[in-house]
Amino acid sequence: MRVPAGFTDAEESNLTTAATPVRTNAIISASLPRQETGIDWRDVFKSSANFLTLEHTFRIASEDATRYWIGDFSASGYADSVASLHGWGDGDPFLVNYVGHPMQGAVSSFIWQQSDRVYRTAEFGRNRQYWKARLRGMAYAYVYSVQFEIGPVSEASLGNIQSRWPQFGFVDHVVTPTIGMGWAVTEDALDRKLIQRMELHVANPWIKMLVRGGLNPSRSLANVMNGKVPWHRDDRPGLFKQDPEGVAGSAYLARGMESSTVNPPVGVAPFDFSFNLIARQYLGNTDAGTCLGGGGESGFRLASDWQAMLNVGGCRLLEWRAHWSGDTLTYMAGPRWTPQAPSKWIPHLEFLAGGTKVTQEYRDPMLEAEAASMPDKNEQQDIAKHNFYTTDWDRSGFTIHVGGGLNFRLNNALELRMANVNYEHTWIGPLNGIQYRNAVQVSGGLVIRMGTW
């Protein structure tokens, strides 16, 4: 650059140095692609349709009852499936409810993120963009889950599954988006903290391919549903020449800018959401048994120290005596007092009110033995045999819930619910001589704080 006459050597040097960063920043800014916005709805529908087709194909291939009833579709059968939903358990084994469905939630969350243009390169860490991306993905996972369970192309319509034993419960509606989010966050953390670091020290693309695909199974399946290779990443280059490239340049630059960003103060969260594991013990009657399950909870800020809470949860009654089982569903709302303090330990007290539904099932061993000798050709006959030797009861009542707990603040976005202990009283009569009026519930989980990051 030309320097005006009369400047000293030192002044000329300072002027040249000061001008250089401006020119460099201008070149970098000009070279970056313009940021895309909005949702690629075509990709959302295409990927979701592929995933839905895969899941229903597996159902039809593996479930006798679905194949038996799928050709007998009727509007009344679909209505019965939706209207029959009650309680918590749906008869599926633990791996299906608490592994398979959370993985479904993670896959559908990644499908959404791949089409969410602003957030698709968001990377795990203490940054606002990442947690917004995960919450947006969780919202879509819930929508996808509802469609899969009771939507137009669902278990309720293709086979009317929920209209028959034992597919009545709400467990999948809760655990799919909530535990599914935890699954997606775990895969993101592995990708950021383990896979990327490994890639810095390993040159072999085949090893990278196996690690990327194997340690992120839900993301890999979402990639395939979107017509991409399983090991694809939107935030960095592909592994082979034929792989489509991610938008790596802008993502890495954004990562560098992010590292220099100062986190905002903790503040007061206007909204938070939590998903919890639950253990409930009924009091005054040892025959009532222990109840294990999970649930979700949302809190809306009314004042600096007060929240309005909505709580839905359920648990499976363990087999407290031979041939008996059951479940409990609760739904409550009310105020919570949460004092704001600079400490990382956050106490709270709450009073909630709502309803509880308790369901029992008894399997008659003599009739069960008789049913074992009946023909056993398909799942539909299994259902008929089950109805032959089992009897169901349920009872509902008004419930109050009083207690409190302690959270540990991990960062501006997350809190760990260390313990939440509550006493519950339900105005409900005995069910087959067993009282469910009084219970102590202990829960713990992860709390996501919105509006503070």
% residues in beta strands: 25-35%
Would you tell me the structural class of the helices and strands? Answer: alpha+beta
Biggest sheet record? 8 strands, antiparallel, barrel
Distance between the termini: 43 Å
Residue-averaged pLDDT: 78
SSE run:
HHHHHHHHHHEEEEEHHEEE
List the strand order in the largest sheet: 1-2-3-4-5-6-7-8
What gyration radius follows from the Cα positions, in whole Å?
27 Å
Quantity of strands, as a count:
8
> What is the helix tally?
12
List keywords for this structure.
alpha+beta; 453 residues; Porin; globular; 26% strand; 12 helices; eight-stranded antiparallel barrel; disordered N terminus
